[in-house]
Amino acid sequence: MTLPEAGPRRLRAAIIGFGLDGSDDQQRLSTGDQCILLGGSPETHAEMLETMLRLESELERLGQGLADVTPDQLAEIAWRIDSPELHEIALSLGEGLRSHGQSFHESSAEDLTEFSAGGP
């Protein structure tokens, strides 16, 4: 069985949050429209979930998806929802895109991951 050619795959924006401090043998997973959260202690997971809900609520209020906002707009949103970690990631992503002369939509997932981590 072969699958029909659907054309080029469109990169979908998503934020994936990993909580690495869970030691109670519970597996925590929360999903939203544009975010996925994995792991963490009950406190860490709840904190990530609150940030995810505030982000998705703000994007909905603006009538935009994650892929529709620029890194600078995402940094502003992160500042408004009081998420310094997301603010820093958005600033790194924007700087990476600018320094490589690329846009979000023409960058690979690997590029975007590198840029958001403040890579070279």
Largest sheet: 3 strands, mixed
Give helix and strand order, one letter per element, not per position: EEEHHHH
**Which percent range fits the helix content?**
40-55%
Category by helix and strand content: mainly alpha
Oligomerization category of the chains in this entry? single chain
Q: Any idea how many domains?
A: 2
Shape: globular
* Unreliably modeled segments: none
Distance between the termini: 43 Å
Produce the secondary structure layout:
Layout: E1 15-19, E2 29-31, E3 35-39, H1 42-62, H2 71-80, H3 84-99, H4 109-116
Parallel strand pairs: 1-3
Antiparallel strand pairs: 2-3
Helix pairs in contact: 2-3, 3-4
Structure characterization notes:
The protein has 120 residues and is mostly helical. It folds into two domains: 15-52, no CATH class; 69-120, no CATH class. 46% of the residues lie in helices and 11% in strands. It contains four helices and three strands. It has a three-stranded mixed beta sheet, covered by helices on one side. The radius of gyration is 16 Å and the shape is globular. It starts with 14 loop residues before the first strand and ends with a helix.
